[in-house]
Amino acid sequence: MKNRFFQKCYTFVVAASALLLIQNSVTAAPLVLPRPVPLQAETIAQLKHAHANENVQWQLVVFGFTRCKDICPTSLGNLAMLIDAANAEQIKLNGTFVSIDPDRDSEAALANYTERFGSDISYLRFEDEELERFKATFGVEASFLTKNEGNMEHYQVDHSTTAFLIDPEGRIKVMFDAVKDAASVAKLFHESRELF
Questions:
Q1: Which one of 31, 53, 82, 126 has the minimum C-beta count within 10 Å?
Q2: 195 and 173 Cβ atoms separated by less than 8 Å
Q3: Cα–Cα distance between 12 and 185 in angstroms, integer?
Q4: Nearest-angstrom CA–CA distance, 176 and 195
Q5: pTM of this prediction?
Q6: CA–CA separation, 18 vs 149, rounded Å?
Q7: Among the ranges 12-16, 48-52, 114-118, which has the highest mean pLDDT value?
Q8: Is the pLDDT of residue 18 over 50?
Q9: Closest-CA residue to 103 (of 70, 125, 80, 130)
Q10: How far apart are CA 171 and CA 59, in angstroms?
Q11: Phi then psi for 56, rounded to 5 degrees?
């Protein structure tokens, strides 16, 4: 009886270890939507407002906050790299950083933050219901940790790292992890010209 118990435990440990190894070796990949998701006219207008004086056909959209220490700067650095990669392929593209933390992200803070990543990346700042509607359009979630009446300044925000590539017709064409998938998306610009 003891032997069977240890054999089952051993089998479970081996199977669990194999699953962990497989999970760690699986990489994220961009999702090219076979049927692009059309955005509502209001959302398209808001995105165009972020780049009011530009005639750009494609847009990258990512969500975050300016006090983010690692994920958001990486995401925006990757967006800047993707804009350069698109330009090299003659694809007109710009980026939009959408703040999920308007209580701490002022217009000035957002302008200063996005400016560091290049002139092709702009920002949008919404509050309250308008922000909730915009996030819901993209299915973006955010959690505010330790934010309360006694702590309105030094709290952490968890949010998704999904980025959205929007085509000239205002449809979500590609979804990808802004931290992990940038090189794969850059490859799409070069190898999948029929998408653009």
A1: 53
A2: yes
A3: 38
A4: 15
A5: 0.80
A6: 46
A7: 114-118
A8: no
A9: 125
A10: 10
A11: -110, 145
pLDDT digits (tens, 9 = 90+) for 164-176: 999 999 999 999 9
Residue with tokens 């449809």: 171
pLDDT of residue 57: 86
For 120, the token pair is 């092709």
71-88 vs 182-191: helix axis angle to the nearest 10? 10
| DSSP strand pairing (156-159 vs 31-38) | unpaired
